[in-house]
Write a structure and sequence with these properties.
This protein is globular. The protein has one helix and seven strands; from the N terminus they run βββββαββ. Helix content is 11%, strand content 61%. With 101 residues, the protein is mainly β.
């Protein structure tokens, strides 16, 4: 899947908001796609430019470092490799990234 890469986030911690400590992980890639108009029934919303989207990635420091190396050079077109999420087989996550050719 080719996208314009903006950046990524990787983190983990323990939330105590609910009183009971609960571990969490944050891991996603942000990219942009051309904006699209939304016209349906009484709705007519025109859009131009780009829309920011997000996709989950594997919680993997090596993958994050790879994304960071590309993103720190500036905005770039990349090829994302998607694989089934081991936690939810109905969803895909990014497992690799490389500069698009």
């Amino acid at each position: 899947m080719k996208v314009i890469l903006l950046g990524a986030m990787l983190g983990k911690g323990v939330s105590t908001k609910s009183g009971q400590p609960k571990p969490y992980e944050l891991n996603s890639i942000e990219y942009v796609v051309p904006s699209k108009d939304y016209i349906q029934g009484d709705h007519n919303i025109q859009k131009c430019g780009f829309t920011v989207k997000s996709v989950q990635m594997a919680h993997d420091q090596t993958l994050y470092n790879k994304v960071a190396t590309i993103a720190n050079e500036g905005i770039a077109e990349v090829e994302l490799t998607l694989s089934p999420d081991p936690e939810n087989m109905a969803r895909n996550i990014v497992t690799d990234v490389r500069l698009a050719k």
